[in-house]
Amino acid sequence: MAVITHDAIPQVVAELERRKAKLYHACQLKDLRSYLQLGGVPSRNLLDSNGLPYTAFETDPGDQRKGLWKLVFFNLSDFGSPFARGSNNLPNPYGPILLCFNPRVIERANDISITLRSAGAGDFDREAEGLSAEDVPTLFRHSNGPCVWPPEELRCKFENQKARSPEMSCSFDDELAVMDCLAYIRVDPYSFDGRCLPDVVRETVLGHEPSYRVFARDRCNDVLRYQVLWDVITRTVPSGGDVLSLIGEDSLMSTWADRVRSQSKLSFQFNRYVRYLFDGTIRECVS
After folding, report:
1. 237 in a domain, yes or no?
2. Could you state, in chain order, the average pLDDT of each consecutive group of 10 residues for the chain (287 residues)?
3. Are 168 and 114 in contact, with CB atoms under 8 Å apart?
4. pTM score
5. Cα torsion at 252, 256, 262, 264 (round to 10°)?
6. Is cis: bond before 210, omega within 30 of 0?
7. Is residue 261 assigned to a domain?
8. CA dihedral angle for residue 33, residue 37, residue 38, residue 43, rounded to 10 degrees
9. Is 231 contained in some domain?
10. Residue 244 belongs to a domain
11. Total domains, the chain
């Protein structure tokens, strides 16, 4: 196990392009505005050193300690898709704005590490856990498709009980994955004060070159679920109320709230989701 360096990166890019796969990076509105100033997805260190606003994550101190602060991160799956399709999963905790890149975005990287779990884990070791370029095809469910195996299958195929979802961390000379390879932006359909978040994002990127395509997330089984979340979080967080309990009082979301409350991992991620969404997007929209 090791990081994938210059010579092998084209092999990874070619495999991902053959599958028509995308590399995903979710963010909040506050962060997107900083990204646009820099012209790409930056490391946390680059944001910090330039004095640009970004949403603070609970994992930030650990990332600094583990030497990850100067890296740029992508995922191989759209973590917000299951909720949009009506499942009891969470929306993506890291943000309602999904930047969807062509794999060529990593061609300029010095090295990449594809791991089977998030770097946020306390005992994470980027080099020791990194897959080889030859391992990449094994991540996918079909021989030609972009769909990644679910965690239980990854644990079996890689004989790794810590496997969750593949994550890619990248080292760039300038700590920036440029926007040139951005295919499109997908935005969760939250609404507020007669406006919708996808329109706010369109306005935010307007005038930047090249022009970026912005779409409201499609295939949403029930847009009203997003609205319940936004309204309760906006109303409740400033007062310190119990967000999940109030969400559960809505008939549309009661089953969802019960499942989140009953599963410790979901409940843990829910608290992050609420905090990050409020700090990074809701405040940007309603202030």
Report:
1. no
2. 89 98 98 96 98 96 94 97 93 98 97 94 89 97 95 96 95 96 96 95 86 87 91 96 96 95 94 98 91
3. yes
4. 0.96
5. -140
6. yes
7. no
8. -30
9. no
10. no
11. 1
